Here is the input.
Amino acid sequence: MSDPRRPGVGEGLYHPLRGDIIQGRLAPGAKLRLEQLRESCGVAASTLREVLSRLASDGFVRTEGQRGFQVAPISAEGLHEIAGLRFLPEEHALARSFSRGTLEWKTRVIAAHHRLDSHEERLEAGHRSDISLWREAGGRFHQELISACGSAVMMQTPAGVFDK
Here is the structure.
């Protein structure tokens, strides 16, 4: 019997592939070669098809009929639309945080901003290997900004729109 606390093989593959798409390691429009992916991921073809079908239903991958799968294309307009989605719930949560925030909350926000700023300075200085640290610090900063909103649902919504 499988442990419900541990993700299955498909779940363990879904998030890394989704991350590769979001990060651009798998380029928009790129064909996803099943045999290559199956070998590199070490999974059965049926598991891989299940994961790719889920990615397709989530809009990250397109099916090409009988010709396989392809990373979904994205346009500049599409990126702006997705970015705009984040602002809707986050703007409301931010307003609530500002009205409810304590001195401790302000201190945490300032500290998170300082960490983010430090990572941005390193990136601007050419330290491209720090991009994952910058993304993590940015996510923490945004979460800290809305952490005083008083709603667990609002806290989770921005994370659902963008990967951490």
Observations:
- The two ends are 31 Å apart (CA to CA).
- Confidence is low (pLDDT under 50) at residues 1-7.
